[in-house]
Amino acid sequence: QGELMESGGGSVQAGGSLRLSCEVSGRLAKIKIMEWHRQVRGERKLVARIFSDGRTLYSDSVRGRFTISRDNAQNTVFLQMMNLKSEDTGVYYCWRDTYCSGSVCHAGTWGQGTQVTVSA
User: Fold this and answer.
1) Burial class of residue 65, CB neighbours in 10 A (0-12, 13-18, 19+)
2) Would you state the torsion angle of the CA atoms of residues 35, 83, 8, 111, taken in this order, to the nearest 10 degrees?
3) Which tens digit of pLDDT belongs to each residue from 57-97?
4) Burial class for 20, CB neighbours closer than 10 Å (0-12, 13-18, 19+)
5) Closest CA to 96 of 116, 115, 77
6) How far apart are CA 80 and CA 67, in angstroms?
7) Which whole-number Å values give the CA distances from 40 to 46, 53, 84, 90, in the listed order?
8) What is the average pLDDT score of the chain?
9) Which residue, 37, 32, 33, is CA-closest to 20?
10) Using an 8 Å Cβ cutoff, are 62 and 49 in contact?
């Protein structure tokens, strides 16, 4: 329950676009916070966050180019990436907050990651 599966990574040229998907095995509607992080040389940083009420937050480096969204009916969170730059290259990880279903709570967890490579 609550496992994450990312997809949509790949290689693109600078200026191109990609859309990442993070499918949740369970009810996304029960999860308050979902995030995308980028890992480069072992350092993982927040890229975007979305709350269950639809509020969003972005890192300065991607604001205006990336859009995070969630589709509770599909139990999927998306990261639409536009006007990609070489510095966007990295492994992108999906993360979900702890959530409870009835009396059972599931600790926050990460997906397996998906590689994004942007060539100049």
Assistant:
1) middle
2) -20
3) 999 999 999 999 999 999 999 999 999 999 999 999 999 99
4) buried
5) 77
6) 5
7) 12, 30, 16, 5
8) 96
9) 37
10) no
